[in-house]
Amino acid sequence: MSDIARSTASDGVPSGRAKPHGTTLGSLAGKSAIFLILIALLAIFAVIQPVFLRAANLLDILEAVSVTALLGLGITVSLAVGGFDLSVGSTAAMGVMTAAYAQVVWGWGAVPTVLLVLGVGIGIGLFNSLLIIVLRVPDLLATLGTLFLVGGLQLIPSAGNSISTGMVFADGSEADGVFSPTFLALGRLRLWGLVPLPVIILGIVAVLLWVLMERLRWGRAIYAVGGNERAAHLAGAPTARLRVFAYVLSGLLSSLGGILLAARVGRGDIMTGGSLLQDSFAAALIGFAVLNLRRPNILGTVIGAVLVGVLLNGLTMLNAPYYTQDFIKGAVLVGSLALTYRLGRDRR
């Protein structure tokens, strides 16, 4: 079969016939729906609150979603391999508390602190891999257990208190360390006085992951495992190693998000991570609808994180009551996904 015939057959249109005009429009609408919704939100918020479209505010949005997007990218890789990582929020929170403890209590510098936090993230990914691949615990249950385990573990060293300079421990001793200025720059520095460093870090990570997942054999093998693990194994793919890689990468990205968050707030806040899991999963799942790909993908997750960030920022600028924001966010996201999948149904 020729490439053209194979392409038309895969679209459900008999070989040798032009695709119906409605099908083409439906496919185009499905691919662009999320982008159109994002543009519509930007326009609505700009009309109601003109300062919304100022460059400073748009960069603030990107800075705010950088951590959410990093966690979402970790989730995306775990979804691509056919898994489900619920522990990303607690891993990021563990990163925040670890970074604070290392500097405020132990007096460590920026470099060893970053290496420690990244190592903790890798360790959590390996622990998830042990549960899922070696002990064969279902992904959802294993990472749910890790969520509670890590979420509780991070509170033990500080006896459930936030970590900051001058905090007093149960034995009466006082923490006199401070956050390294170099470490704080990771979350606060603006290149050329304008672009936040976390946005640059997110961009670099996203590009590297996009190349890995969309252009390299390793990424195609990850998608193959997620599609049919047995078939991928029979085809020679190292399925176990790929799954370990996915969970370790998810832990690594989550801990990186924790580093950026700790550097931004400058303290170890025990409330960190409360909404990170929810928003990062929203970003990853919205990504399924971007370009109507209907699979986890890197570009889609970043766009999804931006959509969530725009919505939250706009509602905040409009002084929407906090108790209505989750409802409005949910309504917009559900409507967006429903519209996208409805418009793109003709691709099937």
Automatic annotation (TrEMBL):
Residue ranges annotated as transmembrane are 33-52, 64-84, 114-135, 189-212, 244-264, 270-291, 298-315, 327-344
Kindly give the membrane topology term recorded for this protein: Multi-pass membrane protein
Q: Which UniProt keywords apply?
A: Cell membrane, Membrane, Transmembrane, Transmembrane helix
Instruction: Tell me which domain of life the UniProt entry assigns to the organism this sequence originates from.
Output: Bacteria
Any one GO CC term of the record: plasma membrane
This entry's Gene Ontology molecular function terms read: transmembrane transporter activity
Subcellular location, record wording: Cell membrane
Keyword Manganese among UniProt keywords: no
Chief site of localization: membrane
Q: Which InterPro entries match?
A: ABC_transp_permease (IPR001851)
Please identify the protein, giving its name as recorded. Answer: ABC transporter permease
